């Protein structure tokens, strides 16, 4: 049982161990060939891994460096598992023949600290003494010397640059120039891998740096929607070792997972998520909650509301009126709206027996601000003309709609008013501006 | 010979660091530089030279060759071979460090910690104060030494003009008019550095160099038409030899991958006489090298991002300037209305725009209010149309 939990946890949370889908297999193979070429055949290489955030580029690079898959007993894995484990014997071989350095464009703000970091990582790995006072030139000389030593002992250096586009946006790009220049000499054996989410990362390079870069770009794309279900299956199904005692528990669990994946609600949820952002990380995070609910009570899935909906369900009627008026104003493509315009919309649009005064409405408005369901959009901390400050909604339309459904006191007429189409009429615009000048 | 071993040999031959013995197509420039250096050495007078050209045109390569040729000739002619100091200015953090660098390359035993100034370097390089041999200074990427006052560059060139100086200065940079534009006062102290331009490689030159690199292989690997396509394309684009070599390597990768998947016993096949890297491999490799993978990325975007990109393409077709985010939102809402899709709220819309901007497809500025941020389409309108026209949903909406 513990082992199964460990496996699932690692797959879901540890980016190094999460499996990759078939369309990225080819990219991993290309990367693997590149590394093999550098390490075994002593050729210098450089490459750029591009892809949207949450897709494989980071995973692809990190999986290459997994030193020892010692946490898991290697015999249990079947063909669906990571390329990582299939080639693990070779990887152990690689361990002796390569040395790695990782840099991040966000952390190492300028070339000097980046080079210092390279020197530090190399020193730590080879148990040399690192001097903090070493200058840029000394660190560079150290790097050159180490590379020469490596090539004599048939070892390769792999440099991974995360957020490569940030390195390229430095004014002088001297770090990139020097690193890529080192790849040109026959006495060094190194690979420089850049990871970036910008497609035009290599256009940001200066022309002499770009000339030295090998133009090899490996593109990591999010999976097409058909593959997402297969991917989820691969993540969640525990591999079953028929000889183990808990085999039937594992089988039962896997059956539950398959049933969950076949459910209509799950498919709908996955499609909705994929329409917004189909990176694997996002999908896993978002369906996880749904999955847990399903697993806890298989009989009836009581949908638990996210906190925003609970907050909306608790609001008073006047507050709901105000929120609906804001939504209608947004539908009318009003760029900015203030409390006054919201109140006006409510008064004009919603005809009902009870009418609230402006003071009461303003109190309700302040309450909404406190609950952070709406917010001021001009960014100033305090302002005197609070009725005239532009506001914006901090919840989405769908959340508002769900909140109206869930609220026990929401009148049916309000729900109708919500779904009535708004129209962009010049008349209301004119009256709006008239009101503003009247109030000011 | 084994297939994979052969491919490996081809890749090694095409690698940047595998410099051939004889350098083709640069003989005229190398001859001029050698003649200049020889004259200076024979007459024991200082001089300066400025070498310029686009990246990848063989300047550093020529310098390496020059060092070897010059010392060989000096020994033959019976004069003292010059000391060579070669500095790449990108490794300097400050322009004035160049003096220390040159000093320490010429005097390897000197005290490393001391920083050396211009005066001390001048002393080292002057015959009257004890210099025995001529010194050859090669300054690579000289434009990194450009500062506001240009003191360092002027002083360096002055070193080559002083009567008793013993140095021959060769500066390398990309700009053709560096000496005229940044150093107009050179003429006042009668310094006229000779300018030698390394032009971009022509189609025939690239073809010749590629053939020379591949001549060391026992079996012909590339179809001549493929090499010619590569030469034509690269010379039309930039004339950068490195790009040509990279393109050939990429074509080799594609050829290898294709053959691996085709044959059942990949280890056993040898390279047949008629198995070449064909024109279509080269064409695909060139497409990879010269284009960024915009089309595939757009096709792989999630649905809503594609809709936003489509609205942006339509919006920016009509206007050339930046548009605020609010206008893009309006366009997007109109698009949703015509196609009957439910639009996302404004918060989610900004999130989607940020996602696309992170990938470099859209440019997004900063502003006080979210709706006022400036947006600009960073990819070609035609690329968006081409990428999305296969999707039925977008076909009617793209202009």
UniProtKB/TrEMBL annotation, chain B:
<dbReference type="InterPro" id="IPR049945">
    <property type="entry name" value="AAA_22"/>
</dbReference>
<dbReference type="GO" id="GO:0033314">
    <property type="term" value="P:mitotic DNA replication checkpoint signaling"/>
</dbReference>
<dbReference type="GO" id="GO:0005634">
    <property type="term" value="C:nucleus"/>
</dbReference>
<keyword id="KW-0131">Cell cycle</keyword>
<dbReference type="InterPro" id="IPR054425">
    <property type="entry name" value="Cdc6_ORC1-like_ATPase_lid"/>
</dbReference>
<protein>
    <recommendedName>
        <fullName>Cell division control protein</fullName>
    </recommendedName>
</protein>
<dbReference type="InterPro" id="IPR036388">
    <property type="entry name" value="WH-like_DNA-bd_sf"/>
</dbReference>
<dbReference type="InterPro" id="IPR036390">
    <property type="entry name" value="WH_DNA-bd_sf"/>
</dbReference>
<dbReference type="InterPro" id="IPR003593">
    <property type="entry name" value="AAA+_ATPase"/>
</dbReference>
<feature type="domain" description="AAA+ ATPase">
    <location>
        <begin position="45"/>
        <end position="194"/>
    </location>
</feature>
<dbReference type="Pfam" id="PF22606">
    <property type="entry name" value="Cdc6-ORC-like_ATPase_lid"/>
</dbReference>
<dbReference type="GO" id="GO:0016887">
    <property type="term" value="F:ATP hydrolysis activity"/>
</dbReference>
<dbReference type="GO" id="GO:0006270">
    <property type="term" value="P:DNA replication initiation"/>
</dbReference>
<dbReference type="InterPro" id="IPR050311">
    <property type="entry name" value="ORC1/CDC6"/>
</dbReference>
<dbReference type="GO" id="GO:0051301">
    <property type="term" value="P:cell division"/>
</dbReference>
<dbReference type="InterPro" id="IPR015163">
    <property type="entry name" value="Cdc6_C"/>
</dbReference>
<comment type="similarity">
    <text>Belongs to the CDC6/cdc18 family.</text>
</comment>
<dbReference type="InterPro" id="IPR027417">
    <property type="entry name" value="P-loop_NTPase"/>
</dbReference>
<keyword id="KW-0539">Nucleus</keyword>
<keyword id="KW-0132">Cell division</keyword>
<dbReference type="GO" id="GO:0003688">
    <property type="term" value="F:DNA replication origin binding"/>
</dbReference>
<feature type="domain" description="Cdc6 C-terminal">
    <location>
        <begin position="309"/>
        <end position="388"/>
    </location>
</feature>
<keyword id="KW-0235">DNA replication</keyword>
<dbReference type="InterPro" id="IPR016314">
    <property type="entry name" value="Cdc6/18"/>
</dbReference>
<dbReference type="Pfam" id="PF13401">
    <property type="entry name" value="AAA_22"/>
</dbReference>
<dbReference type="Pfam" id="PF09079">
    <property type="entry name" value="WHD_Cdc6"/>
</dbReference>
């Amino acid at each position: 049982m513990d082992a199964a939990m460990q496996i699932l946890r690692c797959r879901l949370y540890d980016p190094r161990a999460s499996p990759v889908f078939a369309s990225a297999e080819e990219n991993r193979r290309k990367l693997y060939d590149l590394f093999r070429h550098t390490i075994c055949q002593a050729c210098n290489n450089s490459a750029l891994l591009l892809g949207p955030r949450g897709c494989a580029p980071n995973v692809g690079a990190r999986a290459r460096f997994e030193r020892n898959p010692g946490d898991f007993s290697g015999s249990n894995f079947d063909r669906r598992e990571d390329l990582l484990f299939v080639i693990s014997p070779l990887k152990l071989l690689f361990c002796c023949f390569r040395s790695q350095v990782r840099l991040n464009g966000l952390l190492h703000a300028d070339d000097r600290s980046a080079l210092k970091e390279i020197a530090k990582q190399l020193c730590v790995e080879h148990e040399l003494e690192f001097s903090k006072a070493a200058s840029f030139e000394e660190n560079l000389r150290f790097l050159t010397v180490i590379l020469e030593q490596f090539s004599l002992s048939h070892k390769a250096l792999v440099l991974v640059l995360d957020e490569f586009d940030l390195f390229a946006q430095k004014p002088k790009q001297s770090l990139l120039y020097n690193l890529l220049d080192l790849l040109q000499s026959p006495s060094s054996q190194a690979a420089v891998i850049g990871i970036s989410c910008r497609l035009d990362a290599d256009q940001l390079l200066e022309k002499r740096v770009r000339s030295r870069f090998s133009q090899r770009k490996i593109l990591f794309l999010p999976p097409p929607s058909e593959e997402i279900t297969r991917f989820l299956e691969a993540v969640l199904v525990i591999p079953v070792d028929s000889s183990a005692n808990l085999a039937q528990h594992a089988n039962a669990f896997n059956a539950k997972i398959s049933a969950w994946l076949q459910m209509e609600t799950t498919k709908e949820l996955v499609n909705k998520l994929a329409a917004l952002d189909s990176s694997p990380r996002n999908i896993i995070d978002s369906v996880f909650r749904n999955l847990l609910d399903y697993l806890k009570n298989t009989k009836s899935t009581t949908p638990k509301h996210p906190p925003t909906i609970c907050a909306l369900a608790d609001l008073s009627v006047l507050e709901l009126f105000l929120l609906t008026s804001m939504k209608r104003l947004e539908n009318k493509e009003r760029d900015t709206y203030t409390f006054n315009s919201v109140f006006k919309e409510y008064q004009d649009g919603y005809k009902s027996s009870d009418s609230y005064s402006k003071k009461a409405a303003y109190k309700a408005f302040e309450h909404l601000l406190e609950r952070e369901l709406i917010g001021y959009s001009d960014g100033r901390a305090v302002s005197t003309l609070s009725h005239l400050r532009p506001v914006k909604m901090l919840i989405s339309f769908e959340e508002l709609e769900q909140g109206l459904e869930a609220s026990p006191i929401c009148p049916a007429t309000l729900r109708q008013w919500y779904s009535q189409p708004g129209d962009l009429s010049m008349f209301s615009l004119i009256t709006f501006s008239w009101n503003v000048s009247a109030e000011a | 010979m084994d297939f994979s071993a052969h491919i490996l040999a081809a890749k090694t031959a095409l690698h940047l660091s595998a410099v051939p013995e004889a350098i083709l197509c640069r003989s005229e420039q190398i001859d001029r530089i050698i003649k200049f250096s020889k004259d200076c050495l024979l007459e024991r007078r200082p001089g300066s030279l400025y070498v310029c050209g686009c990246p990848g045109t063989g300047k550093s390569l020529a310098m390496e060759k020059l060092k070897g040729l010059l010392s060989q000739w000096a020994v033959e002619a019976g004069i003292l071979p010059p000391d060579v100091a070669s500095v790449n200015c990108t490794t300097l953090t400050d322009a004035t460090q160049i003096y220390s660098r040159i000093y320490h390359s010429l005097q390897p035993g000197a005290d490393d910690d001391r920083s050396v100034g211009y005066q001390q370097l001048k002393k080292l390089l002057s015959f009257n104060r004890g210099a025995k041999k001529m010194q050859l200074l090669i300054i690579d990427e000289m434009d990194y030494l450009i500062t506001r006052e240009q003191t360092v560059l002027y002083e360096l060139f002055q070193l080559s003009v002083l009567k008793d100086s013993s140095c021959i200065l060769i500066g390398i940079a990309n700009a053709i008019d560096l000496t005229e534009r940044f150093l107009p006062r050179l003429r006042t102290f009668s310094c006229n550095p000779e300018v030698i331009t390394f032009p971009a490689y022509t189609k025939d030159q690239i073809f010749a160099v590629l053939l020379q690199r591949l001549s060391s292989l026992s079996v012909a690997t590339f179809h001549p038409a493929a090499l010619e396509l590569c030469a034509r394309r690269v010379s039309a684009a930039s004339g950068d030899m490195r790009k040509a070599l990279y393109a050939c390597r990429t074509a080799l990768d594609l050829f290898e991958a294709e053959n691996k998947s085709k044959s059942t016993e990949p280890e056993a096949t040898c390279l047949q006489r008629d198995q070449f890297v064909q024109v279509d491999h080269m064409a695909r490799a060139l497409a990879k090298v010269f284009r960024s993978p915009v089309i595939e990325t757009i096709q792989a975007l999630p649905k809503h991002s594609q809709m936003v990109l489509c609205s942006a393409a339509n919006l920016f077709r009509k206007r050339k300037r930046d548009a605020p985010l609010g206008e893009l939102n309006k366009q997007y809402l109109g698009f949703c209305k015509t196609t009957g899709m439910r639009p996302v709220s404004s918060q989610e819309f900004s999130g989607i725009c940020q996602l696309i901007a992170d990938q470099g497809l859209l440019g997004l500025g900063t502003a006080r209010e979210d709706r006022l941020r400036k947006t600009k389409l960073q990819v070609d309108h035609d690329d968006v149309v081409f990428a999305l026209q296969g999707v039925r949903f977008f076909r009617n909406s793209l202009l």
